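Aim 2 progress update. The chain analyzed this quarter is reproduced below.
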Amino acid sequence: MKIRQLLRITGVAVLIFALLSLTGVLLLNDAQERERKAYEEQLEFVQLATTLNEASNYLTDEARYYVQTGDKVHFD
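Predicted structure tokens:
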């Protein structure tokens, strides 16, 4: 009787440990996926910021050229 009870307790403990391990692995996988997506979005935002900076510099240069020369070739 004591061996049966000891085996039952051990089996339950192993089952609980296996479920906790599986849950931990699934949560870790989800966290890694969210981190990868965040990194990809960060790269996209860096690219968008660079593009916006280049466009802003271009428009500023065109406005300065218009102010200095009065030439409306690029203004219109």
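The chain has a mean pLDDT of 92. The radius of gyration is 32 Å. These observations will guide the mutagenesis experiments scheduled for the next reporting period.
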